[in-house]
Amino acid sequence: MTEAILQVQNLTKIFGHGLDQAQRLLVAGCGKDEIYRKTGATLAVDDVSFEVQEGETFVIIGLSGSGKSTVVRCINLLHQPTSGRILFAGRDILGYRREELLAFRRRRMAMVFQSFGLMSHRNLLDNVAFGLEIRGEPKTARQGKALQAIELVGLAGQEGRRIDSLSGGMKQRVGLARALANDPDVLLMDEPFSALDPIVRRDMQSELLKIQARVKKTIVFITHDINEAFKLGDKIAIMKDGRLVQCGAPEDILYRPATPYVQEFIRDIDKGQALCAWHVLRRLTPPGPGSGGGCAELGDGDFAFLLDEAGRPTGWSRQGVSAPAATAVLVTQLPVVTTSTPLRELLPFLEEGNLSNPIAITDDSGAFQGYTTGNAVLRALT
Amino acid sequence: MFPSWYKLDIGAWFDRLVPLLGNRFGWLFERITEDLLWVLNGLERLINLVPWWVQVLVVFALGWRATRKPGRGILYAALLVLVGLLGLWEEMNQTLAIVIASVLCSLLIGLPFGILTANSRRLTAGLRPLLDAMQTMPTFVYLIPAVMFFGLGKVPAVIATTIYAVPPVVRLTSHAIEQVDPEVVEAGRAFGASRMQLLFKVQIPQALPTIMQGINQTTMMAVSMIVTCSMIGARGLGMEVITAINRLEIGRGFTSGIAIVIVAVLIDRLTQGWHRRSPKLGEGRP
């Protein structure tokens, strides 16, 4: 595994006065409440460590007051951590000098805010160009980049609008465009969709997935909505009272909750929506380039699949461990879904046939990845 | 009865302090007097250079723009003509020069202090009693030392007016900057704005409507000093009132009083237009 782009190590943040005393109490093993009672200082983040890989969406989820927003603000040093290390590309950002910190914020990081943080004295275009302006880019260059970002978030043609004339969803698109215009290495998103109506929120989540497929940014995403976390996250970290309770892939959290708290947390989850075909994929290694053109056959002990020239699945047959594929009956009726299809949309295929029949799974371009069965889908959902 | 065996005689201190300051810093006060006089005379000449009908037109245009109603513009212009008809045009211009100079001085001092005290609780707390004192201390108390330092006429008038009028612009500037949406400020910092960039590209533009309110208040307080200033020899509309009182000329008193009301109302309406120029009009809905 390559080195993580962002490493947070033993991050602790205490707000308020009497820091020394609070830290001593913390080392002595006192909890959040006790520290507050004795010193009046708030322990917001308590010994949190995690790593974010390049290109992944890392979701931090927790209830309000769990310290998740503080964590994200420590990553770009809007809050100064009390102790711990934050490594960006291997270097501790706490050691940055003032100019280095400004350059880091101008080039490497960009942030999207819950209530947008837009500037009402600027129009849409100038809001999006804000980061570039701060960076000192000449007017034409920054307007060009800003227009690209505006198009990316689907607001082309609205550049001249005033901020107060925009709807909530549009405002957050502007916030996203402002962050993307900077072309940062890491995108910090602090509950970006929490202030939006449910329908708008769902649209924006899909929009973000679509944009992310194109720009492939490293994203640290804060939310309190478990379904949002499962929809967007490659990795999910759950926080409670300033501590990281569990961190892992969505399936890990779902099937191996570390504590009763996590169990409680994921109870509301809509698995049919949160899990997608990728989670139940039984992967079949595609044939190497040496297997020749034309059709190919691919299988494991249970099934064999027939692929066309483009690598798309066209049929399947059931095979025993010993039976050669050629002797089995080829079935050409084969449901095909992509890895990102939610499990809920697989259910209609189950009703039509035998639960042990396979469903082929391809990637977005249609290339065969593997399969799943009705039984596996049902197991995943229960 | 409060025991009288000891009397804290701060009056004596001031009696000694003021002449002392006058001797010690006489050169400084003279310098300030000269410079201010130069600015004031320049301003007055500038205003007198403008033909009366241009002034009327400007008031009409500003009134129209500020209220977006041409009728208001006409009304304001007519009020201005009325001052001329009352025979007080020159006096009005003299008064205007003093008011403008005082407001400029107040802004020059008040805006930086307002910015400095924003986000510094200690500085705000320290400056507060001083601002309170400046606003509530009866003007006559410092009018006399002002005359001792700066002589009679326009200059001490501007100084006294500035002392009286500066608090609102300090307070509202400071308040306005503190009231800027914290997430907007955070956004500025998150994108790497330096302290100066944050101030000039985010905080001040966002605070501008409230800062404008402070400027409007300061201007109105400067206007309210017109008559007081004339007691130390500043010529203009206030002098008319003083003369009328001294000679018991009731009609003359009312005439100049009405002119002052008109000037005050016009200045208020026209400066309010700046910060009330609402952006919401004429914009499409999403």
What do you see in this structure?
The complex is a heterodimer of chains A (382) and B (286). Chain A is of the alpha/beta class and 382 residues long. Chain A has a domain at 279-381: CBS-domain (Roll). Helix content of chain A is 34%, strand content 24%. Chain A has helices at residues 19-27, 32-39, 68-75, 98-107, 124-128, 130-134, 139-152, 168-181, 198-215, 226-232, 250-255, 260-265, 271-274, 347-352, 374-381, and strands spanning 6-15, 42-52, 57-62, 83-88, 91-92, 109-112, 186-190, 218-223, 235-240, 243-248, 282-283, 296-299, 303-307, 313-318, 336-338, 358-362, 368-373. Chain A is globular, with a radius of gyration of 24 Å. Chain A starts with 5 loop residues before the first strand and ends with a helix. Chain B has one domain (12-49, 86-276): MetI-like (MetI-like fold, Orthogonal Bundle). Helix content of chain B is 82%, strand content 0%. Chain B contains 13 helices and no strands. In chain B, α2 (26-49) packs across α8 (154-178) and α7 crosses α8. Chain B is globular, with a radius of gyration of 22 Å. The A-B interface holds A 73, 76, 78, 102-107, 109-111, 113-122, 130-131, 133-135, 161-162, 164-167, 170, 178, 182, 188 and B 181, 183-184, 186-194, 197, 201-202, 205-206, 208, 279-280, 283-286.
Beta-strand percent range of chain A: 15-25%
CATH architecture of the domain at 279-381 in chain A: Roll
Number of helices of chain B: 13
Here the CATH topology of chain B equals MetI-like fold
Question: What's the quick description here?
Answer:
Helix content of chain A is 34%, strand content 24%.
Features:
heterodimer; A: 382 residues; alpha/beta; CBS-domain; six-stranded mixed sheet; 15 helices; 24% strand; B: 286 residues; mainly alpha; MetI-like fold; 13 helices; globular; disordered C terminus
